[in-house]
């Protein structure tokens, strides 16, 4: 399967195997710029899409894995993370921190581990779909597995 995957997705696939994750990366027929379009392509509720949002938290990357049904309350996330300011990161900041493009940032497979917060809302879904390192790739996982493989902290983000 790896030979058909984009290069970034191969890196993510390798990281998933090393971390003992069970889901296989799926190549979507078209880009999914929103949680709704991703949900339509994989056949799930929009809330079961784990959006990978990278924020600039006082100059450090902060990955927030949020349900596609939610908007991140940056003030709440800043308080939760114990930082002064959280703001949406630039595409260059995201690429430097993750090695992946916006729209395809996976929870794992980054050059160095990222501090990660995982939206508690995702626990309401038996299967959660996360990006696979490229805008055309996703993989199925669970809330518990996302927390485990990212070393993330379960939190409320909204």
TrEMBL record:
Entries under InterPro entries matching the protein: YbaK/aa-tRNA-synt-asso_dom_sf (IPR036754), YbaK/aa-tRNA-synth-assoc-dom (IPR007214)
Gene3D superfamilies linked to this entry: YbaK/aminoacyl-tRNA synthetase-associated domain
Domain YbaK/aminoacyl-tRNA synthetase-associated: 30-148
Domain of life assignment: Bacteria
CDD domains: ProX_deacylase (cd04333)
Protein name as annotated: YbaK/EbsC family protein
Organism encoding this protein: Nonomuraea purpurea
Organism lineage: Bacteria, Bacillati, Actinomycetota, Actinomycetes, Streptosporangiales
């Amino acid at each position: 399967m790896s030979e058909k995957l984009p290069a970034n997705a191969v890196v993510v696939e390798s990281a998933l195997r090393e971390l003992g994750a069970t889901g296989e990366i799926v190549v979507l027929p078209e880009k999914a710029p929103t949680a709704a379009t991703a949900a339509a392509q994989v056949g799930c509720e929009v809330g079961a899409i784990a959006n990978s949002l990278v924020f600039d938290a006082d100059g450090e990357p902060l990955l927030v894995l949020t349900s596609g049904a939610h908007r991140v309350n940056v003030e709440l996330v800043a308080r939760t993370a114990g930082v002064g300011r959280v703001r949406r990161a630039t595409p260059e900041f995201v690429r430097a921190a993750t090695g992946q493009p916006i729209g395809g940032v996976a929870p794992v497979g980054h050059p160095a581990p990222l501090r990660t917060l995982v939206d508690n809302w995702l626990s309401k879904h038996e299967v959660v779909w996360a990006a696979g390192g490229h805008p055309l790739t996703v993989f199925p996982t669970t809330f518990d597995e996302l927390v485990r493989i990212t070393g993330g902290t379960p939190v409320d983000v909204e």
